[in-house]
Amino acid sequence: MGTPYVWGSSRSTKSTMDCSEFVMWAMKEGAHINMGKGGARSQYTIGKQKGKVVKYSELKKGDIVFFSTKATMKYAKGSINRIGHVGIYAGNGKVLHTYGAGGVRYSNMASGWWKDHYVTAVRVL
């Protein structure tokens, strides 16, 4: 918690992280699942291969959740290009992720920005 956010972080250390690096390390160390060193779109592709896509109403703790960003909202809802952010579902409508000031943290994805930008989820556990 609190590890500083740096977009495009190196992936070689855990002193700073971006969203996909956080998911990479969490899945690697917590579940021994290799999600690759790519970004959120790459992790979605890997997640579909290793597991399955799940509906919002079926989310369980540990599911990998994907969101659009201001930059990716221009793409169609069904397009992989719509994905621009990734985190891990923590239960009770919360996502564990990293972005901006505050670093790794929980956010409420049941309402507001996170709900409006939710794209899809995969289950690999």
From TrEMBL:
<comment type="similarity">
    <text>Belongs to the peptidase C40 family.</text>
</comment>
<dbReference type="GO" id="GO:0006508">
    <property type="term" value="P:proteolysis"/>
</dbReference>
<dbReference type="Pfam" id="PF00877">
    <property type="entry name" value="NLPC_P60"/>
</dbReference>
<dbReference type="GO" id="GO:0008234">
    <property type="term" value="F:cysteine-type peptidase activity"/>
</dbReference>
<dbReference type="InterPro" id="IPR051202">
    <property type="entry name" value="Peptidase_C40"/>
</dbReference>
<feature type="domain" description="NlpC/P60">
    <location>
        <begin position="1"/>
        <end position="125"/>
    </location>
</feature>
<dbReference type="InterPro" id="IPR038765">
    <property type="entry name" value="Papain-like_cys_pep_sf"/>
</dbReference>
<keyword id="KW-0788">Thiol protease</keyword>
<keyword id="KW-0378">Hydrolase</keyword>
<dbReference type="InterPro" id="IPR000064">
    <property type="entry name" value="NLP_P60_dom"/>
</dbReference>
<protein>
    <submittedName>
        <fullName>NlpC/P60 family protein</fullName>
    </submittedName>
</protein>
<keyword id="KW-0645">Protease</keyword>
